[in-house]
Write a structure and sequence with these properties.
Layout lengths: L1 H18 L4 H9 L5 H9 L9 H19 L4 H14 L2 H17 L3 H12 L6 H9 L1
Helix pairs in contact: 2-3, 2-4, 3-4, 4-5, 5-6, 6-7
């Protein structure tokens, strides 16, 4: 009886892993299209049916790329995508990606004519340890 339970469990594991298709090659292709075409980015992102099946790190990239593609396509920022990306980057310790997303967040506030919010985010960015002196100087003077 115990042998059959182990066999059944092994069968379930094999079945579940065989049915799980990894969308990360599609995400990688979407990321490669970033400097090529917004429509191509959106085409590849739409092929990912369930972004929650991506790894947590890939989810950050998915939501950040979705934010950028939507902004470039419509001209309007969708903050929920950006907030999700920042959250994923933070929980995964992806500091560089988090920094990029926070800079986008500051630009988003400026776009919507919210300079106070942009200044708050900019101030928080200047306090980040990851920000090197060159970026800090450019950020202060621009």
């Amino acid at each position: 009886m115990n042998y059959h339970s182990v066999l059944l469990l092994a069968g379930w594991v094999i079945t579940l892993t065989a049915c799980h298709s990894s969308p990360s090659p599609v995400l990688k292709k979407a990321m490669q299209m970033e400097n090529v075409s917004v429509d191509s980015i959106l085409f590849y992102l739409q092929q990912i049916d369930k972004p929650e099946n991506l790894s947590s790190k890939e989810q950050g990239d998915y939501y950040f790329l979705s934010y950028k593609a939507t902004l470039w396509k419509t001209g309007k920022p969708v903050d929920s995508l950006l907030q999700t990306a920042i959250h994923r980057y933070t929980e995964n310790g992806q500091l560089y990606q988090r920094m990029q997303a926070r800079i986008e967040q500051s630009a988003s506030y400026l776009y919507r004519n919210q300079p106070d919010s942009a200044l708050l985010v900019s101030d928080a960015l200047l306090r980040e340890e990851l920000l090197n002196d060159t970026l800090r100087t450019q950020f202060v003077w621009s």
